[in-house]
Design goal:
The chain is mostly helical. Helix content is about 70%, strand content about 5%. The chain is built from two helices and two strands, in the order ββαα. It has a two-stranded antiparallel ribbon.
């Protein structure tokens, strides 16, 4: 069954992917927007991939490992010093 506006020759409606377009220009404009969005997403994906590669380089991994080791040693040293100072404060019975 044709929609009610099918009887009017001046109205051109094109249905594509569930959307109604009034002209081929609207379709072309929409396709251009979608193409640009696809290109933007592709560039964003490339950027994220390059950042991931940079973060996985051996020098970067060694740097992050060095920071973790320093943090662990600092916490260990603070705990040991706290234990030493706590023992000095306690009066001997």
């Amino acid at each position: 069954m044709l929609p009610y506006f099918a009887n009017f020759p001046n109205i051109i409606l094109i249905e594509a992917m569930g959307k109604l377009y009034n002209s081929f220009k609207e379709i072309d404009d929409r396709l251009m927007v979608l193409n640009l969005q696809r290109k933007i997403e592709m560039e964003s994906l490339k950027l994220n991939l390059n950042q991931a590669k940079a973060n996985l380089r051996p020098l970067q991994l060694a740097g992050s490992l060095k920071g973790s080791i320093q943090q662990i040693l600092l916490v260990y040293t603070i705990k040991k010093l706290r234990g030493i100072f706590n023992r000095r404060r306690q009066p001997e019975a």
